[in-house]
Design a protein that fits this description.
It comes from Cirrhinus mrigala (Mrigala). This is Protein UNC80 C-terminal domain-containing protein. Pfam families: UNC80_C. This protein has about 140 residues and is an all-alpha fold. The chain has six helices and no strands. The model has no long low-confidence stretch (mean pLDDT about 85).
Length: about 140
């Protein structure tokens, strides 16, 4: 709806409109993926623990919902959105990114050494983002 109003001539330059459309096309699939993965991880994690307890076999190794590559890929997706966030308020308030950071990161078991680079990637980008926001005179 907003893009339709912009196209009708609300005084927006064509380049700015193209930039907004490009940002939306960049943001939307990444936001959706983070949202879906967070929902899956949040609801299936407790269920997996229940199923492991029901199995009751000591031979059963601890299963993970997401492997190392998946955690790293999700962190890279969140990283790409966090790069854009200081310059785009819609990215800053995106539901998928917010849920990934506030719901999935805290419940992930970061004790495994192999997945820590994903957490470090996110934390470093958050630090840089806050520094950029702090230096912006408009904010």
């Amino acid at each position: 709806d907003n893009l339709h109003l912009l196209e009708e001539g609300q005084g927006i330059l064509r380049e700015e409109l193209d930039e907004r459309i490009a940002r939306e096309e960049f943001r939307r699939p990444r936001e959706s993926l983070l949202n879906i993965c967070t929902e899956f991880y949040k609801h299936c994690g407790p269920r997996l623990k229940i199923l492991q307890n029901v199995a009751g076999e000591p031979r059963v190794t601890a299963l993970e919902l997401l492997d190392i590559k998946s955690h790293m890929r999700l962190a890279e997706i969140a990283h790409s959105l966090l790069k854009l966030a200081p310059y785009d308020t819609l990215t800053m308030e995106s539901r998928g990114l917010r849920r990934y950071i506030t719901e999935m990161l805290p419940i992930t078991d970061w004790s495994a050494e192999a997945i820590r680079p994903a957490l470090i990637l996110i934390l470093k980008r958050l630090d840089r983002m806050f520094n950029k926001i702090h230096k912006m005179p408009t904010l």
